[in-house]
Each structure stands twice: as C-alpha cells, then as structure tokens.
Amino acid sequence: MECKKTEDILKLQNQLKDAKMKNTKLKKENKTLINDLQFVRSQNEKLVIEFNTFSLKSIENLEKLQKIIGKLEQMYFVVENTCAHFIQKLEKQKQIHLKEMDELKRDLDKQNQDDITCSICLVAWDVSGSHRLVSLFCGHLFGDSCIRSYLNRSEICPTCRMPCRQDQIRYIYGRRILPKQ
C-alpha cells in the first residue's frame, strides 16, 4: 500500500509540476495579453486624441467655409445688383439711341427728298423726258431743261459757281438717285 501511496504522491507531484508549468505558461501569456491590451489602449487613446483634433479642425474648417460662403453670397448679390443696374442703363441708352436713330432717319429721308429735287425749280427729277437727271462737270445735279435754260443766261454752276458749258452736261443713269415712281 505504501507503494500505492508513493505512486499517488508521484502522480500528484507530476500533476503539481504540470500545473506549475501550465501556471507559468499562463502567467507568461497573461503578461503578453496585458502588454497587448496596454498597447491597444495607448493606440486607442492616440486615435481618440487624433479624432478629437480632426473633429475640431473639421469644425474650424466648416466655420471658415461658412464665412467664405457668406462673403461669396454677399459678393454675388453686389455683382447681381451691379449687373441689373448696368442692364437698366443699357436699356435707357438703347431707348435714347433708338429715338436718335428715328430722328436721323427722318432727317435723312428729308435730306434725300431734297437731294432728289432740282435745286433750280425744286421739283423731283424725271426718269426720262425734258426734266430727267443730269450732271455738270463739277458733279452737281439738276433737271435737264432747268440747267440748259440756266446756262443760256449764265456760264457758271448755280450751286458752286464753277465755270461750265452746255456741252459738259452728262445724263445720269441710276435708279436710287431718282424719286420713287
């Protein structure tokens, strides 16, 4: 029986030895896990600090962007108002220019009416016949019969007083110069 007790003691000693080895191994693993946990915690703290810093910078950047957007909206409003003001001015100028153009057209029509009449008799020229359009050497225009009868009495152009003769009379062929029929 003593042998059995010795065997049991040896078994218990071996079990104790195995348990101590397992305990030592578990302590080492536990130490490693504690170190890993401490590392993870320190990394977590760093990440939290970085996140908070990033959040603060993001908030600051967002505030800066909002200020910039506000300034841009103000500038846009000013530009929009300025454009509207210039458009109004341009519209007024357009109206003024249209009135001026109408006046110039009326003046031009009146002047053209004067330009299609004989400066001697003040009657419009004919396309053919005795009062058809003719020119003197100086370039002035008259009705044929009017200038011939005038040159019978005088040898100068009635407009510019340049010397001229009846053989210098030239017929003018141009539809735009003659009055509308």
From TrEMBL:
The keyword Oxidoreductase does not apply. GO terms for molecular function: ubiquitin-protein transferase activity; zinc ion binding. Keywords: Coiled coil, Metal-binding, Zinc, Zinc-finger. One of its GO terms (cellular component) is nucleus. It comes from the Eukaryota. InterPro entries: RFWD3, Znf_RING, Znf_RING/FYVE/PHD. Pfam families: zf-RING_2. Residues 9-43, 87-114 form a coiled coil. One of its GO terms (biological process) is interstrand cross-link repair. Signal peptide: none annotated. Residues 118-161 form the RING-type domain. This is RING-type domain-containing protein. The lineage of its organism: Eukaryota, Metazoa, Ecdysozoa, Arthropoda, Hexapoda.
